[in-house]
Each structure stands twice: as C-alpha cells, then as structure tokens.
Amino acid sequence: MTKKPKPTSKIAAIPLLSEVLTRPVIFVSGKGGVGKSVVTQAIALALSRKGRRTLWVELEDPLKPRGQLSKIAPKLWRLNCDAEMSFEEYALLKIGDSPLARMFIDNKLMRYLAKAAPGIHELVLLGKIWHESSRYESVVVDMPSTGHGLALFQSTKNYATLFRGGPIHEDAEEMILTFADSGKTGHVIVALPEEMPLRESLDLDQFLMEIFPKNRATFVVNRTFPKTGVPANIPADPTNWPSPLAENPLDYLNRRVLLEEHNLRIWRDQELSFAEFGYVSPAEAHTSAAIAEVLSEQLVTGGHL
Amino acid sequence: MNANVDADMKANSIDEILKRRRIIITCGTGGVGKTTVSAALAMRAAQLGKRAAVITIDPARRLATSLGLTELSETPVDLTRNLREAMPSHKIDGTFSALMPNAKANFDDFVKELSASKTIAEQIARNPLFQIFTKEFSGTNEYMALERLQALDLTGQFDCIILDTPPSRNALAFLNAPKLVAELFEERLIRWLVLPANRLLSAGMRKALGILEKLTGAGFMTNLLDFASTLFSVRVQFLANFEKTTRLLQSEAVGFIMVTTPTPEAAPDVHHFVRTLQEHRFHFEGLTINRTIGYLFKSTSKPNQATSPGLPVLEGIRKREEQAMRALSSGNIRICAMLPELARDIHSVEDLLYVANAFETHHAQ
User: Fold this and answer.
1) Chain CA centroid to CA B119, Å
2) Within a 13 Å sphere around the CA of B276, how many CA atoms are in the beta-carbon half?
3) From the CB of residue B132, how many other CB atoms can be counted at a distance below 10 Å?
4) Smallest CA–CA separation between A52 and chain B, in Å?
C-alpha cells in the first residue's frame, strides 16, 4: 500500500487482518453481543492449525475455574486469566518466595487490591498476558466487552501517575512499549454490520488510537448476510422505509442486504477497511466451538491466514 | 412465602406491570437491546398516561442516538413533544423524559456530597486514584445508577421511572455491584490503612505495606492512604445510603425486568438471575425477549415462492428461537413481552414507537 501524504498522516493506516494475525500478541475487543469471544476462539484455532504454538486468553470468566490453563487442541492452550492469582505470581517473582512474601500475598488487603483496586487489577492482568507471550508464538486475548475492556488499556496510561519508580513502573513501561509496537502486538475490533455496533467500534478505535497512536486496530465485521440482488421497489436508504418492520422472511432478507450495504458503504467511503465474517446459520453450528470452527475456515478461505 | 412466589409467577403484560410498579429496572447482558427496551417502556408508560422517565448510565450514548438527543444530561429532558409529533393520531396523556447522567462526574460528586468538609473535596479532586476509580472500578457505574434513581424518585416529578442498567458481561453484575462498593467501605479494611495505631499493632500489615511500597514506589502509597482515608471519612453516610437503597429495591414500588435475546445459551444466565433476584427479595416481573424473528414467518402477506441464499440462515435463526423459547420459559419463568427484530437500525422516536407498540401486539401467552 502506498502512503498518501495527508495533513492527518500522523494517524497510522488501518492494517489488514492478515498482517495483524502474524503478530505475537493479538487483542480482540468489541461491545457485548457482537460475537467477540467466538471470533477470538476462531483466530486462536486457525493460528494453532497453521502450526503456531497458541495461547487463547480469557479474562476472569466467572464460569470457568480461576486461572485454569488447559490444552484443548494440538498447539492450542486456553487460559482463564485471574488477577488475584497473577498478582501472587508477580509478587513472588519480584520479591522471591519466602514466608514474608507469603504473608504479604495472603494479606486480606493485598488480595483486595489485586481484585479490585483501580489501576492495579488491570495492570496485573495485562502483565500476565505480557509475561505469557514469551512462551507462545501467538497469544490471542478475548478482551472484556464492557467499559472494563477499555479500562484495561486505560490503566497503561495511568501507571506513570500512579506508580513513580519501583519495579511495577519499570515493567509497566516495557509492557506498554510491547503493546504499542505494531511489530509485536495487534488490535482487532469486532463489530456487526448494524449502525450502533459500527459506531461503537469507531469509538473503540478512537480510544485505542489515543493510547497506541502508532499501532492502529483492524476491524472485523461479523455476521454479515449473503449479498444478493434486491427488488428495485425497496428504497436503498433504510431511513426512507415507511416502517422499520419487515413483512415476511424474504422481505427481511432483502432489507437486511440493503441495510448492511448502507452501513458498510459509509465505512468504505471513509476508507475504513475491514474483514467480513459471514453469518454462521445456527442450523449449521450452534455451539461456540462449532461456530469458531466455521469462522476459522472463513479466515483461511477469506485469505486472512 | 410459597404463596408469594406463586403470586410472583403469575403472568403479567407490560401494561399491567407498568400500572403496578413505580420503578422498573431493566437488566441483561450487553448487546441485547436493553437501552432500546427501556426507552420503549417509558414511552409505553407515557401512552398509558404516566409521567414517565428513563435513566440510562451510558457512556456509549446509545439512548441519545435513538432519541435524537445530542448530549448527556444530568437533569430530565422532556421529550413529550417529540413523542406527540411522532404519533399525531394518538392522544398522549402522560409525559416522557430521559436522563443520561455522566457516571464519572457522579461518583466524585457523590463522595463530595457525603463528605462534610471542603478539604476532603479537594483531596478527591487531587488524587489520581479517584479519577481512575470512577471510571474503572467495577460497581461504581451500577451503584451510581441506583443513587440517581433514588434521587429522581424523591423529587416526586415522575410516577414511572425506568432504570436502564449499565452494560455488563452478565446481568448479575448489577445486583452484586452495591455489595462490591460496600466492601470497599468495609471498616476493617480501611481502618488498617488509615489508623496508625492499628498499623503499629499489626506487624504483618506493616511488613506487607512495606513490600507493596517497594513494588509500587512511594507515590502510590501516599495516594492509596489518602484515598482510603477519604472513603473512611464518608463511610457512615455511605452505609446509611446503601441500606436505604436496598430497602427501596425490595419495596413494592420496584419491579425487575430481564431483557434477553432469543438464544438457548441465554437460559442458564436467566435462571440464575431470577434465583438471585428472589434471594435478594426483589420482585421479578418477567422476561422480555428482544429481536425475535418469529413474526416474519407468521405474516399473512402473500407467501412468496422466491428464495434467497440468506433463507437457510434465517430458518436456522428461527429454529434456534423456538428452542430458546422452550429453554427460557422452563422452570416457571414467565415471559412478559416479545419484541420484533426490526429490519433497520433504530433512528428515531418513530422507530422506538414500533417497539413500544409491540408491547401490546406481540404480548406472549
């Protein structure tokens, strides 16, 4: 790709998904309900099948045992990262294992700090990911879907004001350099071809750009319907339809095609590049593992891997 | 007790619920359309003649976009005129307002309000931990939403308030949030930090703090102590507020509605949520299932023989929806409304009205 000299050339261009997937650490972000987790799983699965030793990271999934690491396929491991346990690990690494160190870690206040203290909790989780990245060829992280996902990176902005001097300060600095480096870390934002999720993904992009100005995220638009021709009597701009309801299945599909085209055209006009994942029919696959399987094939057939 | 549960389980339409409760709290995971449902509930209430308001603590400003509001507002904005213009043929006796408070400003304000002195307020403004805390501590958004609700209720301006809970990974986060915040104010914890005498008593704590200081640098400890002592100073007032909030939530004035999408995977979450509500002794009103496509297949419009490559996907979604209905309603969980999937994004008050009207026409059972 040639770079156009623009007044805004300080902003890095959106990289291709295929390029981002070659990076050692990949953060997958997105709002709730967009299928972020299953996309993360698909990416991890596809990378491991390409022969890369891969770690798929979930952050404090309450439904899985804390800190559990399990091998789920050849070359693929899954970790349910837990702040309290990672804090313990980090502290022992830094101060050495001793009765005093154990007392420090078992202290109720320290446990509370790791679990909930603003700044510490997030840094500890990111620190664990950073630490693990040296043991795998690819680490794919399922970021929390709420505001806390942003908070995770926000903590990297705050650390300097919070921790002046000390090992945490130094480690955080090095860690952030890794996450800001487009050679080492990739950021993927998952959206749906609907107005609100697309808009929210742009907000996410804006936020990430503020923190990592030289490491732009790439976009994935998930669950797009098959593109078909549409009868000319339906206006192309959905805001011109008399009603937001569809009349029957076929009418819904026609309108859906127009809606997606309308929403994504705005994106293309702004030169926002993105990869698309087709809607996996629940009849074809209904567990997240089965959907991830189909999506990981789409990654290959789509030329992203 | 059993009789109560039975009464609780009797199916109600949204209209009946709106008539019965002064406050409705909508819960659900992110992405299910909670904000849309909340706004539509307030609209429906206005149609029923209520003075209705919807509160959404919403950094993403979703409600704003659908309502055509341009910015966050700390005070209710009256949108009744927009509603009347959108449906000129209907007579609207009630009113319809919306509030979108900024969560960050609120927690600061809240602690400042609780603290009697100016010095404490200044400490808050200066301390970076407070700045981060208000944005990041899981629980503050949820807790502040309840504070807002209570304050608005006390004004007596509204006889129907819909609280759209902040987006979260699971619906229970909202119920657990006040407890998490309360834990922060827990006496023993803060006492250790702020009372020098106690610190002298506990050699272990002193050593732990020493190690923490080595790891984090001196600045952090100063800020942490400052943060803890500020919280300590407002602790008593906070706990009194907390108790008041819990009492309100348990009262007959408040009902909870859970919003979900029609997927079978949502069922365990829903069942867990309803159980937890009952443990808290809160009133569960029913499940609102959003974005259902079943209506498309029941349509009376002329069946079209044409086909489309999207049809298998839609058929699959329909089958999943049917499974979901069975899974969701098992265990006596009642469904109070089913809302249609719209063919376009919600842009306007008019679009929201289609959702509000669906409370009537798509009422299940």
Assistant:
1) 33
2) 16
3) 24
4) 30
Chain A residue with CA closest to B127: the answer is A162
Q: Which residues of B are less than 8 Å from A226 in CB distance?
A: 308-310, 313
Is B292's Cβ below 8 Å from some Cβ in A? no
The Cα-based distances of A232 to A225, A236, A246, B126 in angstroms read 19, 8, 16, 61
Closest Cα in chain B, distance from residue A51 (Å) = 32
Give the sheet arrangement for strand B23-27, strand by strand: B73-78, B95-100, B51-56, B160-164, B23-27, B254-260, B284-292, B335-340
Please give the residue that has the higher pLDDT: either B113 or A169.
Answer: A169
Least confident of A294-303, B134-143, B277-286: B134-143
Least confident of A188-197, A212-221, A247-256, B140-149: B140-149
Helix (H, G, I), strand (E, B) or coil at A113: helix
Structure tokens at A90: 């980090």
Contacts of A98 in chain B (CB under 8 A): none
Q: Average model confidence (pLDDT) for chain B?
A: 80
Taking an 8 Å cut-off on Cβ atoms, the answer to whether B217 and A107 are in contact is no
Cα A281 → chain centroid: 23
SS3 B135: helix
Determine the Cα–Cα distance for residues B336 and B29; give it in Å rounded to an integer. 18
Token code pair at residue B12: 């109600």
* Cα B19 to chain centroid, rounded: 20
**B1-112+140-181+252-296+307-359 falls under which CATH superfamily?**
P-loop containing nucleotide triphosphate hydrolases (3.40.50.300)
Q: What is the C-alpha to C-alpha distance for residues B151 and B53, in angstroms, rounded to an integer?
A: 13
Nearest to A288 by CA among A20, A16, A56: A56
CB A163 within 8 A of CB B216: yes
Measured between alpha carbons, how far is B293 from B315 in angstroms, rounded to an integer? 10
**Residues A297 and A277 sit within 8 Å (Cβ to Cβ):** no
User: For residue B78, how far is the Cα from the chain centroid?
Assistant: 21
pLDDT band at B169 (very low <50, low <70, confident <90, very high): low
Residue B233 is predicted with a pLDDT of 76
Please state the domain extents for chain B: 1-112+140-181+252-296+307-359
Q: H helices of chain A, where? A: 17-20, 36-49, 83-95, 99-106, 108-116, 120-132, 147-162, 167-180, 195-211, 249-269, 288-301
Neighbours of A95 (CB within 10 A): 16
B35 close to B63: Cβ distance less than 8 angstroms: yes
Q: Best mutation site among B181, B313, B318, B362 for testing chain A: the one with the most A CBs within 10 Å?
A: B313
Per-window interface: B 132-171 vs A, CB < 8 A? 132-133, 135-138, 141, 166-170
Residues near A265 by beta carbon (within 8 Å), at least 6 away in sequence: none
CB B15 within 8 A of CB B123: no
Within B21-139, where are the H helices? 34-47, 62-67, 80-86, 103-114, 118-126, 128-136
A258 contacts A238 by C-beta, under 8 angstroms: yes
